[in-house]
Amino acid sequence: MDHKILQTTRELIDEAGYPALTVDRVAARAGVGKAAIYRRYASKAEMAFAALVHGQRLPPPADTGSLHGDLLELTRTFHARMAAPAARHVAPALMSELAANPELDSRFQDTFLAAEHAGLAEIVERAVARGELAGPVDPTIVHLLLLGSLAAGLYIINLPVDDAMITDLVTATATGITALAGRHHGEPGGEPHGDPHGAARPGPPSPDRA
Predict the structure, then answer these.
(1) N or C, which end of the chain is more exposed by having fewer CB within 10 Å?
(2) Does 170 map to a domain?
(3) Which tens digit of pLDDT belongs to each residue from 110-128?
(4) Does residue 91 share a domain with residue 148?
(5) Same structural domain, 162 and 91
(6) Surface-to-core class of residue 191, CB atoms within 10 Å of its CB (0-12 exposed, 13-18 middle, 19+ buried)
(7) Cβ–Cβ < 8 Å for 67, 127
(8) Does 26 share its domain with 123?
(9) Looking at the structure, do residues 120 and 165 belong to the same domain, yes or no?
(10) Which range, of 95-104, 151-160, 182-191, averages the lowest pLDDT?
(11) What is the pLDDT of residue 87?
């Protein structure tokens, strides 16, 4: 049923645009009750976000072997969805709803944003295990620097974000959190353990992650 609801949402947005989308139309075409939709999504905008950008759960982030590579892979995946024309209509509508509805905002924080945060936390943990980071950094900072900046570029500043800009954004984020980890965990000057573009330099042995 989840797949059917989201697929129908995408179809209706493609056919008539986001403004014409309604929960009633999704329910009728998908052959489900409105109550089934509202058990999953508190609003039309939340449902559309799940259909166009990502759901309330995300698959584990790709393990490329480096912090920079992991962040780049994740950011490219998000950009491909967030930059789509339909997503550009949905995101401002959702932000407006979140600003006006504290209960919806709390729900969004606990589902969609929590899923993004968890993926970034896993990437940070891997980088610490490889010796690329001197110690843990708050994934909230990574979230703000990377996906927050991407969202601002696409939806607020309306930048033509391309792959070169994504790569620069990831490089700046990886370099910044590497320095931050060094500062927080006692490395003089916050010197990085590894090349932010590639493999880590020799560092402490990685713990067993089996």
Answers:
(1) C
(2) yes
(3) 989 999 999 999 999 999 9
(4) yes
(5) yes
(6) exposed
(7) yes
(8) no
(9) yes
(10) 182-191
(11) 87
Mapped onto helix, strand or coil, the DSSP state of residue 56 is: coil
Write out the residue range of the structural domain in which residue 66 sits: 54-190
What is the C-alpha R_g of the chain? 19
Band of the pLDDT at 187, cuts 50, 70, 90? low
6-25 CB burial, b ≥16 within 10 A, e <16: bebbeebbeeeebeebebeb
CA dist., res. 77 & res. 99, Å (int): 26
Domain count, the chain: 2
Give the CATH number of the domain where residue 59 resides.
1.10.357.10
Residue 163 within any structural domain of the chain: yes
CA distance readout (Å), 29 to 4, 22, 25, 42, 53: 9, 11, 6, 19, 21
- Phi, psi angles (nearest 5°) of residue 88: -65, -25
The answer to whether residues 9 and 84 belong to one domain is no
- Looking at the structure, do residues 121 and 36 belong to the same domain, yes or no? no
If you average pLDDT over residues 49-61, what whole number do you get? Answer: 87
Q: Tally helices (H) and strands (E) across the chain.
A: 11, 0
